[in-house]
Amino acid sequence: RRSSSVRMQQTERELKPKDRVLALWKPEDDDWRECEIISKNVTENGLMYYVHWSDFNRRNDNWISAALVNHATTKEQLKDNKTRTDAKKDDWQHENHDDHEGLDEASLKEHEEVTKIKNVNKIQMGKFIVETWYFSPLPREIWKNESEVIEILYVCEFTLNFYKTKSELERHQCRFREQNAARHPPGDEIYRSDKVSVFEVDGAKSKIWCQNLCYLAKMFLDHKTLYFDVDPFLFYVVCEVDEQGCHVVGYFSKEKESEMDYNLACILTLPQHQRKGYGKFIISFSYSLSKIEGKSGSPEKPLSDMGRVSYESHWARELLKILKVIGENPDPAKRVISIDDLSEETAFSKDDIEATLKRIHLLQPHKGQWIININPHLVDYWLARCGGDGVTVDADKIHWMPYINST
């Protein structure tokens, strides 16, 4: 067995930051993966290493016991392991997109140095305790450089205030109930359908709340840089509604005035609410607002790895549904559509439509020009890989007017 051969070569060679070794990613599956040593610490449980797993996004960086590390890893073993793990990857899933696209080398190095180790291990928000993924530059009254890692950070799910102890949160909650404070995000409710609600929050009018939302989001987004300057942004906060109030499940932000016609700056579904279809809802909602504005839009780049997967699936799914209907028309003269037509119907940018159709092999060169090939077999094949619609948007229930600069 592979595990036996690896363990036989174990030595007590001291590892240092930037060393690359094999370690057990999933001990129960005997799954050895390449990782980079980021830091080390001696605890009551022995020597621990903070590692970045080469096959996975930085959100999986974590502390592991030295007992799970092959200290005698050779270059040949790393090469063999890479060949084995590369063979398992599914191109459609895009697990390892670069979250730092657009950052120059110096900026990337500075970003990774400052954020290399998480400063909060978990948050408690409402009834959920959630493991964080990344470092977040929290306010100094909560965490300072060189401070110890916060094991659990307590978050009021309505005010988004942070507390270092559970007793502080409970005192806040008592005052909150006594004051009969609003149990929903600040701003205007612009959408309500069944138990799903969306609030528009102006960063200039609710600055602290929006800054706290950004600090919270940074724990789950590696590339995010918006923390303090929230004034130029509107935040569209999606909530689940029950008798206790409106519980934040995710949001997207949008520049009030975008020179590049971006309809979304940042998107996040909180981990405790992922895989419920809210990511698809948020993307659909952003394009519903673009349709009301009467123009096409596109998300700001770079997207996070999961954001990109979600967008690529959304673009493909919506375009394929349109093409399927056109392709089934019995009249050949009506089985025609252009990228301009698709952009007008979906509010997707022409660049995003073109890139998507090329990626799924429906935009093809023919006699010196590009044509959309509505091959029913290809359309059905890719539709099956796009997943469902998730939580759907009822456009008739959106009550919203585009932002108008009053200055």
Concise overview:
The chain has 407 residues and is of the alpha+beta class. The protein is 30% helix and 25% strand.
Strand and helix layout:
Layout: H1 2-8, E1 20-26, E2 31-43, E3 46-53, E4 62-65, E5 69-70, H2 75-86, H3 105-114, E6 120-125, E7 128-131, E8 150-155, E9 162-163, H4 166-178, E10 188-193, E11 196-202, H5 207-218, E12 233-242, E13 245-255, E14 262-264, E15 266-269, H6 278-293, E16 298-299, H7 305-327, H8 339-346, H9 350-359, E17 363-366, E18 369-372, H10 376-385
Parallel strand pairs: 6-8, 14-16
Antiparallel strand pairs: 1-2, 1-5, 2-3, 3-4, 6-7, 8-9, 10-11, 11-12, 12-13, 13-15, 17-18
Helix pairs in contact: 6-7, 7-9, 7-10
Characterise this structure.
There is one protein chain. Mean pLDDT is 87; it is low at 1-11 and 90-103. The radius of gyration is 24 Å and the shape is flat. The strands form five sheets. Strands 4-3-2-1-5 form a five-stranded antiparallel β-sheet. A five-stranded antiparallel β-sheet has the order 10-11-12-13-15, with helices on both faces. A four-stranded mixed β-sheet has the order 7-6-8-9. It has ten helices and 18 strands. The protein has helices spanning 2-8, 75-86, 105-114, 166-178, 207-218, 278-293, 305-327, 339-346, 350-359, 376-385, and strands spanning 20-26, 31-43, 46-53, 62-65, 69-70, 120-125, 128-131, 150-155, 162-163, 188-193, 196-202, 233-242, 245-255, 262-264, 266-269, 298-299, 363-366, 369-372. It has 407 residues and is α+β, with helices and mostly antiparallel strands. Strand 17 and strand 18 (369-372) form a beta hairpin.
